[in-house]
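Continuing the series of single-chain predictions for the mutant panel. This is the parent chain; the variants come on the following pages.
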Amino acid sequence: MGDAWIRLAAPRTAPDTRRVDTVRLTPAQLAAIDHVRRGAAPPPVAVPHAAGLVAAVAAHGRITLNFHPDRVLPSGRTVAESMAACGKYRGQYETGLSSGSRTAFAGGLRDSWELALFGGAYHGPGVLPGDRPKYGALNLMRHADGAAPRFGSCHVRLRPEVSHRATFCYGDSHLGPEFTGTLAAFEGVLGGLVAGAAASGYTLGVSGVDPVAHLLDLAAQPARPNGRALDDYVEAQVHGEIDLVRDAEALVLDPSFRGTAAGEQLASIGVPVEWHAGFVLAADEVGADFRGPVMPRLAAWICAEGEELTASVLGRAAAGLHRDSQNWARWGTEDECLQYVKQLWHVLVWSGRAAGEPVAE
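Parent structure:
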């Protein structure tokens, strides 16, 4: 395997080692992290130079928290309004909103997955909804649209020190993943990533290039194009409060929110704003082969004449569903309609054209 394993990516700038994470964690949060660390499985395949690779992940990897800024919370505020008002990124147990499984409540599926993943740490007395972890993914390849755009058109890019109070799993946590860990016990997750890359067609050592070494080379480059990662990611669970000014490197927004209320509200928080390339698709370009036959009909219905499908157009549709679910009755129940809107976003990520180029401001 040779030099491919030791050719670790150099950072674009020297890491600021003066920054430390000073968040005070609750006993439940500490217990959850410790449970995952102690239960980390050994890697399924040999990972040469694992310690160096883990160090590179810690230096270059960034957790991203993807979100839709214009979705309406049960309070009537949008996500962007709420973030601007409180300066925090809040999890689904607090907001009652999710772009994944809407089961974050006592006895719900998300609750049962966390019971298994964290060994019951969050199921003891005195645990508050805000104590629960916030979900994101580890963006090792610097994809401009974040590590898991299926969960939102925009994302918070967290500072590297936040990763030290996160837990990770290769594959989504709702699947009961085998490979879990922390930065202090990451080898199993790394091995799962290597095994998954090999299963996807990469062969370790072929042509002197290993997928993880290649991945880390990419991590040191300027922002990459949109990755469109709907299913393949390392999930991250961040424990403790996320204060945006303290914990975020940047808010990375979809360009369809330029000049909108949501974009201006997020820009007012005081965190640097960047823009990824976005996604755009004509309504008549939406096919039925990805996410089903409802997709082209729904796209035609929510797009005004001559209007293309974008993240903000989908957000407008979701807000309309929130205000007047009866107007959507032709499409099914409210839960079915929410699912269709979510699936149409997946179609846009999968098939859409880039609307521009990534921009840092």
